[in-house]
Specification:
237 residues; alpha/beta; 10 strands; five-stranded mixed beta sheet; Purple Acid Phosphatase, chain A, domain 2
């Protein structure tokens, strides 16, 4: 991605918090008035689970971005977990345990109620698959896992240290934690990521973590990047 003459706003994990996302977008729109050139919002993944409005967050991201902006939505591990469940590669309970239950509630589905209605788990899964709109599933399947420029990497979880970007494993980009966090001072580019919840946005070495746990803190964070300079914005400022 060419970031010349471009203002980038990277947004951390939304996790079903539509109100916080809308509030942050309004802050971004006001902030962006001072800049000319291309304006891009990069969503860092994990739009679903845990918070109350996963369905509406997906619908919001499927709609056109704010006027004057481009928007890139990256995949997070929670989107991949949902797809793995819908595709039959992950059983229901592990997904429900990490927030899938709240996602199903947002679609009007109570998995416990379905389990009482149907004799088999296969029937429950089939009813769930029938209820999730095909357009939502198709949208989630299109999400890339990483966007790179000459100086920056935008990714959900992080990167595997010592591995070229083009050789990174998708599982690492979506799930890595300790090995990446420990290598913050040995990165070749600035890595902007979510996935690991922090009380306040974290700058360590060349790592910038902006997942401030919106579903539990009520604070969704964005990082604005213009050239080599950054500024933080919050849904609660």
């Amino acid at each position: 991605m060419d970031m010349r003459d471009t203002v980038v706003y990277a947004i951390g994990d939304v996790h079903g918090c539509l109100d916080e996302l809308r509030a942050l977008e309004q802050k971004i729109l006001l902030d962006a008035l001072q800049f000319r050139g291309r304006k891009i919002i990069i969503m860092l993944g994990d739009y679903i689970d845990r918070g109350p409005q996963s369905r509406r967050v997906i619908e919001h991201l499927m709609a056109p971005p704010p006027k004057g902006f481009l928007r890139v939505c990256l995949a997070g591990n929670h989107e991949v977990a949902m797809l793995n469940y819908l595709d039959g590669y992950l059983s229901r309970d592990p997904w429900l345990a990490v927030g899938g239950r709240e996602t199903l509630y947002s679609y009007g589905i109570d998995p416990a109620h379905l389990a009482n209605l149907y004799a088999s788990g296969e029937e429950v899964d089939e009813r769930i698959r029938e209820t999730i709109p095909a357009s939502h599933v198709a949208f989630l399947r299109t999400l890339p896992v990483m966007v790179c420029s000459e100086q920056f990497v935008f990714v959900h979880a992080g990167i595997r240290p010592g591995i070229a970007l083009e050789e990174q494993d998708e599982a690492d980009l979506l799930n890595i934690r300790s090995d990446f966090l420990a290598a913050a001072h040995h990165l070749d580019r600035w890595v902007v990521h979510g996935h690991t919840i922090v009380d306040v946005p974290t700058l360590e070495g060349r790592r910038l973590g902006i997942d401030t746990g919106a579903f539990q803190s009520g604070r969704l964070t964005a990082l604005r990047i213009v050239g080599k300079y950054g500024r933080l914005l919050s849904s609660r400022d």
